[in-house]
Amino acid sequence: MTTHTDELASTKKALVIKAKGGLGNRMLSAVTGLVLARLNNRKPYIDWRDGMYVEVGENLYPLLFDAGWMEDITALDGETDVAPAIWSGRLNKQPVDIIRSEFPGKHQDPLLYRRLSIDLKRDDPPEAVGVFWSYLPKLKRLRSRLRRSPEFARKPQDTIMSDMLDEYFRPVAGVRGQVDVIMGEIASPVIGVHIRFTDRKVPLDKIISKLAKLKERQPAATIFLATDSSEAQDAILARFPDAKTIDKALATDGRALHFSAGGFSDPVIEARNALVDMVALSRCDWLLHSRHSTFSVTAALIGRIPKNRQIDIDRTNFKVRMKQFLQARL
What we know:
Structural class: alpha/beta
């Protein structure tokens, strides 16, 4: 029987998966790229050399996840047979570089990714190297192709995403070990709480209210808090002093942590701390969060946390739901 690994070994075509944004965004976006690579029978390469946490030019992906399956991305940097052609000869660059030089002022354009990525709906282009990038997952745009795929046709979208996260985003041993220690020291059941409170803020009072109600129903539950903000952490600990957290850097100025890499004594440790938070959340029995944050959505997918164990404070937020509905299909 021919396996997917055998198929990859026989192909010379590659798909370079670029990134822009935080950890959750780039993981879920990469899932779309990985599915696209399978549909197009291309070898995937995850390229996170854009300066998130670590220096520009260093690939963050293998510092966080087991990457033994992936060949050396730098071997492709000088390739000129590339689609879209805008990447020809400059595969060492990242979306933010191309946008800054070629499309200034369009960093927020929801359709710009199409100029920097091979077409999701059309047949695979002939070029040796294709590039995929989007700010958010785009599996909805692949749905007609997924229906025709023996591998994906019968799988719900969340299952596809969880399966790909399992396969390509297995944390490095140090992260797995740290999560094992943390969760081993916390009494079950566990309520995971994620609060993004820097460049994007969730309503703290609503989080606290929902958490208090859940604790009333589950008085024996332990709270595990993952946040990027010292203000949010202080607010939760003031109300729930027994809540558990990991020791990590926290933002004090409202600036997203991954944009503050220059201020870290060890950026790799802080990047891994973010992943520890995500994986720990994925192992919780309940998850209190906002769907507006892809970080917590990714945690729920990794842990396959059922919807009835998730308290999504934006579940009925029409503005958020409509925005995500449109973004997934654009």
